[in-house]
Design brief:
The chain has one domain: Outer membrane efflux proteins (OEP) (Up-down Bundle), CATH 1.20.1600.10. It is about 55% helix and about 10% strand. The chain has 13 helices and six strands. A four-stranded antiparallel beta sheet has the order 2-3-5-6, with no helix packed on it. Strands 1-4 form a two-stranded parallel sheet. The longest helix is centred in the middle third of the chain and has 67 residues. The protein starts with a helix and ends in a 46-residue tail after the last helix.
């Protein structure tokens, strides 16, 4: 009768188990997307110092040590990489993610442990107490990974680790670019101050002339007052430059995480800090490889896909093994004798039948997480394209603006000389000199600002292309391995991404064909004339 009851229970449980398995969703694959961007076409480049072609690899493939040429700047970057707190925090996050991956990987290996113990017991029927001893090895409940639950959890942990490593590269790129920009800003703040000092000298000379002419009764008091106002305006420019110098020093020191050594202070108006004179952007598709924020979003997307498979595995029965091997005896002296040897082993199965929709909710939550990761991935690519486009737009007319400003400087310089000569000879009043001074000084300030923007745009272009990350020598030197490493997850179209269907077909990835590019020697740039 007892056997009949067991069989009846099994027959009743079988339909429930079959019903539960019938609701198991389809297996998920890595969700992909198709960007609405021309990743295989060259960037629209309008300035003569920038190129975009399949034959010229992106300058992001260069190590920062090779891209930057200024020895002082390179020393400062080294200091920052060793002391910056944001970068140190990112490295600690990598160490934490690596440890978590190792923990998850350990789940795929059976756990063995040694045990030993002694117990003493008695009951009311038998007043004599008894003692027992045991020692042995035991394998804790080890789940057989028949449905890929442990393997997919391991994959998710791996991609989380790789995403964390890419996040560190993002911090490193931003740090290197920030140090370079602060270095250049400090250099041109020093140049602005020197320009104001040189301007003060000429305006003090003009004030001396107007005072003497007023004392001699040649001119009224107004030219002297105008000369004094012009001198104070130049002094204000010095004070403003001093503020800029202090702010640039503070920004640079924060990025370094250490005081700025006096010997590493920049020269005034550095005209070149890179080894490049022709800046190659490569093709847009190379951003998928060099931009660590895109790589981070890609690994987050892959981790979300693995988590879907983990949630799906919960629909299947779990089978685990456990066992013990050792000795057990009531006498400590007989504990290790062969007669005290004992062992046990056996499987256990857990068949999910009813859980009030918990597994389905977990699976749907994993799907939503994957959708969110997909959106973040697409947004990262769109943001990268936008940032590169903005830098290229800012570089488009910088050369022509500088050319016009230098022509204006020659014009204003001659105008000032003529106006000053006419004023000294009494043929004209001081207003013409004052106007010429203001125009020339403003023009020279504009030239310094444009020269600053020109160098900053080079730094920014290297940054937005993904330059400055920790690339291996193989990735940089071996083009075939570089192209193989650039095979990243493609994106899926909105029609392919359906919330109820976690799977989607994989799409091909556009692969750039990097090659060496010839570098053109720099042309000499005219200096700034001083009044």
């Amino acid at each position: 009768m007892k056997t009949t009851n067991h069989r009846l229970f099994a027959l009743l449980a079988l339909p429930l188990a079959i019903s539960a398995c019938s609701t198991i969703p389809k297996p998920a694959t890595t969700m992909v997307a198709q960007p609405n961007l021309a990743v295989d076409q060259a960037y629209q480049v309008l300035d003569a110092d920038t190129i975009s072609a399949a034959e010229a690899p992106s300058m992001a493939s260069m190590r920062w040590q090779d891209f930057y040429a200024d020895a002082k700047l390179k020393s400062l970057i080294e200091i920052g990489l060793n002391n910056n707190k944001d970068l140190q925090k990112a490295v600690l996050a990598i160490q934490s993610a690596r440890a978590q991956y190792q923990i998850t990987s350990a789940d795929a290996v059976p756990k063995l442990g040694a045990s030993g113990g002694a117990s003493r017991s008695a009951n009311q029927m038998d007043r004599n107490a008894s003692t027992g001893y045991n020692v042995g090895l035991g394998m804790s409940s080890y789940e057989l990974d028949l449905w890929g639950k442990v393997a997919n959890a391991k994959d998710a942990a791996l991609h989380n680790y790789l995403a964390t490593n890419a996040a560190k590269d993002t911090v490193q790129i931003s740090l290197i670019s920030g140090i370079a920009q602060s270095y250049v800003n400090l250099s041109y703040a020093l140049a602005q101050r020197q320009l104001a000092i040189e301007t003060i000298k000429t305006r003090e000379h003009s004030l001396d002339i107007t005072n003497k002419r007023f004392a001699a009764g040649i001119d009224a008091r107004s030219p002297s007052l105008q000369a004094e106002a012009s001198l104070e305006a130049a002094k204000l420019a010095i004070y403003q430059a001093d503020t800029g110098i202090l702010q640039a020093r503070n920004a640079l020191q924060l990025l370094l995480g250490a005081p700025i050594p006096d010997e590493l202070m920049p020269d005034m108006a550095v005209d070149n800090i890179t080894t490049q004179t022709l800046f190659s952007t490569g093709l847009p598709s190379e951003l998928l490889y060099y931009r660590p924020d895109i790589v981070q979003a890609e690994h987050a997307l892959k981790a979300a896909g693995a988590n879907i498979n983990v949630a799906r595995a919960a629909y299947f029965p779990s089978i685990s093994l456990s066992g013990n091997l050792g000795f057990s005896s009531s006498s400590l002296s007989n504990l290790l004798q062969s007669s005290a040897f004992a062992w046990s082993a056996g499987p256990a199965i857990n068949l999910p039948i009813f859980d009030a929709g918990m597994r389905r909710a977990n699976y749907e939550a994993a799907q939503v997480a994957q959708q969110s990761a997909l959106v973040s991935y697409e947004k990262a690519i769109q943001t990268a394209f936008k940032e590169v486009g903005d830098v290229l737009a800012s570089r488009a007319t910088l050369g022509r603006q500088l050319e016009s400003q230098y022509k204006l400087q020659q014009n204003y310089q001659q105008t000032y000389q003529i106006a000053h000569a006419r004023f000294r000879s009494g043929l004209d009043n001081y207003l013409s000199v004052l106007d010429a001074e203001r125009s020339l000084f403003g023009n020279q300030q504009s030239i310094l600002n444009l020269e600053l923007q020109k160098i900053l745009s080079q730094i920014e272009l290297y940054q937005v292309l993904g330059g400055g990350a920790t690339l291996t020598a193989e990735q940089i030197a071996d083009i075939d391995k570089q192209r193989a490493a650039m095979r990243t997850a493609a994106l899926a179209s909105s029609e392919q991404v359906q919330p109820a269907e976690p799977s989607a077909p994989a799409l091909e990835v556009v692969q750039p064909a990097p090659a060496n590019v010839n570098v053109i020697e720099p042309a000499n740039q005219n200096g700034i004339l001083v009044q």
